[in-house]
Design a protein that fits this description.
381 residues; alpha/beta; five-stranded mixed sheet; four-stranded parallel sheet; 14 helices
Length: 381
């Protein structure tokens, strides 16, 4: 039977540590090609000397994951620039009706065109949630977004959120998209509501995702109320009082980290923040192209690696990133972080980290599995 040996710079079978200069050997059979070996290149070459060798480039792995998107912002123009200016552009786009089902549909098409369909998406519209839950080619988590800074509204918003989530969970399908919850940020959701939403997530076993520590302005706003957020959010969150803590410390003080939320961005952190996140068992989602475009700073990859924090990749919205390609996200991270981020660690984050971020079991590549399960990085979309 015909055998083919695929060789890549990195080969990852979905568990353990990725291997450098690895290979996957495929064998044609009656039912199609299947995996007969996943190992180092030299070992595979010796064990299967008759196999035709194909150099495939960067990596072979199970399909990677886009762990953080805003698909309903997919018609927003790409808007690099200071983070605070970008927030105003998002609010204008939303008020003008740009955040829509049509935008989410376009985003899903762009996502699927990359060859991937495992996604963590932030959802603000009922029709988008229903669309994602019914989509036959997607899996992952659709996180219902909650924004409400008024502490007096906490009970009302919680009750409405619980009712909405019950309705959505009845629409879940085996193997499809499941429902999650996203308190937007700790400064756009009141402390009482944050506590209640975290407790709800724990009680119902809901995946939780929160934007956190994205920009220096956010840190200053939490510390003492200074910086541009004071003016930007003055009318929206008049009851906000700075805690004097870091954003991570603030969530810890409210007990939110007990829900093991997936934390998105996490750029502006100190060593103790990362220790807290590791102790809580949270996964962090890195969106490097968005962070660079919005001048938020450079993700401290080495700090997270030193503390053993699981990292995943997300593309954020097309308003802050030029595409929804996880491969392009990883390639950019490789160039930006240089020697701090090994190719092995980057691939592991995009695959295993992504599935963990969405509380999904990472797929594995083992002998006898169909060849269709092998994702070839860099293949034409």
């Amino acid at each position: 039977m015909r055998r083919e040996l695929l060789r890549a710079e990195v080969v990852y079978n979905g568990f353990g540590t990725p291997r450098p200069d690895g290979a996957i050997v495929l064998q044609e059979g009656i039912g199609g090609a299947c995996i007969v070996a996943v190992e180092g290149y030299q070992s595979a070459r010796s064990g299967f000397p008759d196999a035709a060798v194909r150099e495939v480039g960067f990596a072979l792995s199970p399909p990677p994951v886009n762990a953080h998107t805003h698909l309903d912002l997919s018609t927003m123009p790409y808007s690099p620039g200071p983070y605070e200016v970008f927030l105003e552009a998002v609010m204008h786009h939303h008020r003008s009706g740009g955040r829509s089902l049509a935008a989410a549909e376009a985003g899903v098409e762009a996502l699927l065109a990359t060859g991937l369909g495992v996604v963590g998406d932030i959802v603000a519209l009922d029709e988008v949630m229903r669309f994602l839950l019914a989509h036959p080619r997607l899996t992952g988590v659709a996180y219902w977004e909650v924004l409400e800074p008024d502490p007096e509204a906490a009970d009302r918003v919680l009750a409405a959120t619980e009712e909405r989530l019950r309705m959505y969970r009845r629409l879940e399908r085996p193997g499809g998209v499941r429902v999650g919850l996203s308190p937007h940020t700790p400064h756009t959701v009141s402390a009482p509501l944050l506590r209640r939403l975290a407790a709800l997530a724990i009680r119902e076993g809901l995946p939780l995702q929160i934007h956190l520590a994205e920009s220096p302005s956010e840190v200053a706003y939490h510390r003492d109320g200074s910086g541009p957020f004071g003016d930007l959010l003055a009318g929206y969150a008049p009851d906000w009082r700075p805690s004097g803590l870091t954003p991570v410390g603030y969530l810890r003080s409210l007990g939110v980290l007990e829900a093991r939320p997936t934390l998105v961005h996490m750029i502006q952190v100190v060593d103790e923040d990362v220790r807290e996140v590791q102790r809580a068992g949270c996964v962090v989602v890195h969106c490097p192209r968005s962070n660079k475009a919005l001048e938020c700073g450079r993700f401290p990859w080495a700090l997270y690696a030193r503390h053993g924090v699981t990292v995943a990749f997300g593309t954020d919205s097309l308003g802050s990133s030029p595409s929804l390609s996880v491969e392009q996200e990883v390639a950019f991270a490789r160039s930006w972080h240089g020697a701090e981020a090994s190719p092995l660690g980057l691939v592991r984050a995009a695959v295993k980290g992504g599935y963990r971020a969405l509380r999904l079991t990472p797929p594995r590549l083992v002998r006898g599995d169909p060849a269709e399960g092998v994702y070839i990085w860099g293949r034409p979309c």
